[in-house]
Amino acid sequence: MTDTNKTEKPLLKVEGLKQYFRVSSSYTVHAVENVSFEIYAGETYGLVGESGSGKSTIGRSIIRLYNPTAGKITFDDIDISGKLNKETNHTLRTEMQMIFQDPMASLNPRKKIGDIIGEGLDIHHKCGTTAQRDEMIKKILQKVGLAPEHATRYPHQFSGGQRQRVGIARALIMNPKLIIADECISALDVSIQAQVVNLMKDIQQETGTAYLFIAHDLSMVKYISDRIGVLHLGHLLETGTTEEIFNNPVHPYTKSLLSAIPEPNPKVEKNRTALSYDYKTSGLDYNRGTEHLIDGTHFVKCTDEEFKKWTTQ
């Protein structure tokens, strides 16, 4: 993991992000509600939560696949939350990339792997000659553990893990400052997940790329992340370093998530008790909560009364 110097300016700063989807004239889905966090250069920020909590929506809003309903997103000192001009759009499309959840659905089945990986180079005119383009594709394929001759094959000729490596190569070839990994390992076998995550860590050490790592596998998030944010029902409930979240969880939802992690020791697992949490019966109101600092970079979103109660238990 990367040691982050907090005196630096954050690479990405999200402030009060809201993302609503209007379903009908009388109903609007509040997918993301007032979320704020920062990501520094070279670090990995893990965003965890159950299905439907708004994790992928946040990633898509940041990279502007969705237009944010409200809030401010600053990337590399550039405001990317409003209408994008040509220069800002070019910066965003070249310096921020995304690895999608489904490695088959995100690859064009009619294009060869070399053309899929090199599409960004073609659109943004990053290569002067065809030979230079082919050489860059060859190098990036080798970096993600694939062979140069794979460039002439089609996506259906690869396994799930290999396809996800293609997705990583497509993101990396633009040499971005930030990669949004949207549950990029959830569709893979466990053994392949470890390979892909180790590959991402190695590439980060080599290139200094920052990751927004979106997942619901807490064990994998613990392994790869420097800091973690816990999301539930569109609200960022708790955020802190990996050690702070795992060793000193404060919010009841965070505690319930961590208690559900199975233990490899059968004796410990036999006595493990998973804590139950139900927002409807918890008596909590996420909309009333504000950020309370616990220690260092450890924040929890709650009311003053809840904060006193949780920190004195």
Write the layout of secondary structure elements.
Layout: E1 12-24, E2 27-39, E3 44-48, H1 55-62, E4 70-75, E5 78-79, H2 86-95, E6 96-99, H3 113-123, H4 130-143, H5 160-172, E7 178-182, H6 190-207, E8 210-215, H7 218-224, E9 227-232, E10 235-241, H8 242-247, H9 252-259, H10 266-270, H11 279-282, E11 290-295, E12 298-302, H12 304-311
Parallel strand pairs: 3-8, 3-9, 6-7, 7-8
Antiparallel strand pairs: 1-2, 1-4, 4-5, 9-10, 10-12, 11-12
Helix pairs in contact: 3-4, 3-5, 4-5, 5-6
Element-by-element helix/strand order: EEEHEEHEHHHEHEHEEHHHHEEH
Low-pLDDT parts are: 1-5
Helix percentage range = 25-40%
**What is the 3D shape?**
globular
Mean pLDDT: 88
Q: Describe the sheet with the most strands.
A: 8 strands, mixed
**Structural class label:** alpha/beta
Count of DSSP H/I helices? 12
Distance between the termini: 31 Å
Strand sequence of the main sheet, in spatial order? 6-7-8-3-9-10-12-11
Q: In percent terms, what proportion of residues is strand? A: 15-25%
Radius of gyration: 20 Å
The tally of strands reads 12
Please explain how this structure is put together.
Helices cover 36% and strands 25% of the residues. By secondary structure, the protein is an alpha/beta fold. The strands form 2 sheets. An 8-stranded mixed beta sheet has the order 6-7-8-3-9-10-12-11, with helices on both faces. A hairpin with a 2-residue loop joins β4 and β5 (78-79).
